[in-house]
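Note to self: keep these together.
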Amino acid sequence: MKTGKYALVISEDAMVYEDLEILRRLPAFGSVWNDAAVVREMRSVYPTITYPAHTTMRTGCWPDRHGVINNEQTILGEVSSKWEHFNDIVRVPDIFDAAKAAGLTTCSVFWPVTGNHPHVDWLINEYWPQEPDGDPVECFAESGTDPDTLETVRRHIHMVLGHQRQHPFFEKFVFACTDDLIREHRPNLTMVHPANIDAYRHETGIFSDKVIHGLHECDVWLADMLQALDVAGIREETNVFVVSDHGQMDFAGSVHPNVLLARAGLIDVDPDGTLKGYRAICKSMGASCQVWLSDPADRALREETFSVLDAARREGVYGIERVFTEEETARLEHLSGGFSFVLETDGRYSFGNRFTGPVLSAADTSDYKTAHGTHGYLPEKGPQPTLLAFGPGIRPGARADRAGIVDIAPTVAASLGLSMPDTDGRVIEEILR
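Structure:
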C-alpha cells in the first residue's frame, strides 16, 4: 500500500452524497475531482448526532465501546445540558494516540470531544465560554490549548467576537486557525470540523438555497486549505479526506414525551414548570430519545414506563415508530449506556425535552433537536453521509458503494502507514493505492 507522510481530515458536518453533484462543479472540489476516490454512502452510528459520530470517526469504535452516547452530558431534568467537550469520557484509544505512538505530530481544530487530549500537539477543541462573561480566548486554555497555539487563537478570535456559535463566522475562525497551524508546523495528522452545512440544514431544511450557498463556502475553505498545504510544501505528500458524520431529514415539528410521562405520574412538575422529581424521564437526541429510569432494576417501573411509551406509539399521532429497549439497541446498533429505552421517530417529529405545555409543537430553530431539519434517527434513514479522498495514497477515480464512519480512523491511519488493530471498523481498501 502506498502511503503519504501527512493526512488532513475535514469533516463537513451533515454533508450528504447528493451535495457532491454541486461540489464537483465548484473550483476547488472540481480541481481534485478526477483524482478523487468517493464512497457513496458512509453508514453513521446510532444516534446519528455529531459527538457520538465524531468519536466513532476518530476511534474506529461504536458508541457502546467509546462511551459517547449523546452530544450533551447525561444531566437529567434539563431541557438543554452542557455538551461532552472533554476527551476523558472516551474509553478507547484513537487515531491521535496511534499517531503519537508512531512518533508523528498531531493537530485537531474543533474536532468534538477532544478537550485536554494528551496526544494532540496543536489542539483547539470545539469549545466556547461556558458562562456569559467567559473570556473568548482563555476558554480554549481550559480545554487544552497550549500557550503557543493560544497565540493562533488570539490572531483570529476577532472573526467570532459577538458571533459565538454562529455560522459562517465559526468556520472562518476554524479554518484560519487550521491554515496557520499547517503552514507553521506541518502536522502529520490534522483533523478539522466545520459545521455550516449542518447549521443551515437545521435552519432551512435539508435542501435549500442557503445549503447550496454553504457548499460554495466549503469550496472556498477547501481552496484555502490546499493553498496552506502548498505553502507548507507538503501538498504532494498529503492524503486529504473530506468526510461527514450524518445526514439530516426534514421534520414537521417536535414531540415532547416528558409531558406524557408527567401526565402518567412518572414525572413530578410544579405548576410553574419546575421539575420536582421523576421515576422515568426522557433526554432527546434529536430524532431519537433516550428514556432513563430512577431505578433501572425496578421491574414494575420498567413495565409501567414501557406501557406509557408504547401506548403513545400505538396511538399513532406522536410520531413514534418504535420503543427500543437498551438490550435491543446494544444488539442492533451498538448503543448502550445506562438508559432503559430509546424512542425512534417515524419521520414526522423530532423529540424535545419539555415537561409542560402541549405534547406536540412546531419546529423551533433555537434548538437543533427541534429544528426544521435534524438528525439522531437510525443510521439507515435519510440522505447518507459520504466520503471523498485524494492524495498520493488514494486510488484516483475509485468508487465504492458503502462503508461506515467507523472505518474512517482505520483508513486514515493506513494512509499514514499506521495500524489500529483494536477497532470495530476496517480499512477501506477499495479507495487506497
